[in-house]
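Subject: Sanity check before I submit

Could someone independently write out the C-alpha cells for this chain? I want to compare against mine line by line before I put it in a report. The sequence has 383 residues.
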Amino acid sequence: MIKINDKELLYHIVEIRRYLHMHPEKGLFEYNTSKYIASYLKNLGIKVIEGPCKTGVIGFIKGRVGSESIAVRADIDCLEINEQTGADYSSKNHGLMHACGHDGHMAAAMGLAKAISSGDLLKNNVVLIFQPAEEGPGGAKPIVESGVLDKFNIKAFLGMHIFPELEEGRIGCCSGPITARNGEIDIHIIGKPCHGALPHIGIDSVVISSELIQAIQTIITRRIDPRENAVITFGKIYGGEVRNMISGSVTLEGTMRAFSKQTYEIMKNNINRICKGLSLSTGSRIDAEIRDMYPEVYNDKNLFNVLMQAAGKDGVDEIKPLMIAEDFSFYRDVAPEIMFLLGSRNERLGFVHPLHSPQFNFNEEILLKAVKIFYNMIKILDL
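---
Independent answer below. Compare away.
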C-alpha cells in the first residue's frame, strides 16, 4: 500500500510539475528535463537507464518476484508555443511551452515513483518510461526498436493523457482504438505557367488543386464503409506569384486519420489513384507523398477491465475514440497497452482551454488521482 499521505504526495507532485512547466524543451532536446528526472529517480534509490532515443530516461523498480514488469509511460517534450497563461510558474524558455500536459504526465509518473518507493514492495517490477519527442518526430518507436525494453519482460503498458474536454477528475476510456492512425500528406502539382489572359497555353495548377481537393474528399463519402470513421484534412495550400498569372505550381499539405489499418490503406491507395488520374487528364505532374506517422492506440480489453476496477465504481466514462494521434501506440509491439484520459476541465478556475492552446493549464490535484489509478492497476496486475 501507499504509505505517504495524500497531502505530502501532492506537494511533491505540484513542485515537480511547476518546475517542469517553467523549463520546457522540445523533442530530442530535453537534456535538462532528462537530467532532472534521472536525478529525482536516483535520489529515490531507483535504478536509472539514461539515453534511449537520445534524451529518454527509464526507471526500474524491482519487485519481490521480479519475473515480470508493468510499464508506465510519460512523454517529456513540449510544443513551440508562446505561453499566455499568466501563471507565476510560466515558461522561462521563450517560444516553448508545455501546452499538451506532458509536464503533468511526467509529474504523475514521478509521483508514482515516490509512492511506490515509500510503500510495500510490489510483486512485479515497475518500469517507468520517460519518452522524448511524442509531438514529433516520435520517440516510442526508436525506444522499442532499440531493444532496451526487451530485458524487462513487460506484460502491460499503462499511459495517461490529460484532457480538457472532460470534467476535472473524470476518467475517459474505451476498449479497442482510443486514438487514430495518422499520416501526413504532401502533394506537389506542377503545371505550366503563363499570362492570366492566355490560359489556353498553360496548365493551371490552381484549378487542378481545387479539383484534387474535391476528388480526395469523396474518398471519405464514396470509398470508405460508412460504418467506419476516417478524415482527410488539407490545412495548408500555397502557390502562384501574381494575380494575373497562371500558376506553375501548387503545394497541398494535409493529414489523414482512421481507426484501422485497413481503412487507412484504402485512403492511401485512393489518394495515389486520384493523383495519377488527374495528372493524366490535365497534362500536369502530380507528386504525392504520404508519410505514415503513428498507428492507432488500441486499448486491450483485459486492461480496460483492470482500469474499471482500479478507478472504482462509476469511475470511468466510456467515451468514443478520438481522431488525435499518439505514438504510445508503438508499445503494443511489445505487450498489450491501455491509455486513459484524465479530465482537467474546470470552468470555475478558468481551465477550459484546449490542448495546444497558449492558455492551456490545469489543476494539479488531478495528478494525484492519476497516481492512485496507476498504483491500483499495478496492484491488480500483481495478483
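---
OP: Matches mine. For the report I'm noting this point. The mean pLDDT is 97.
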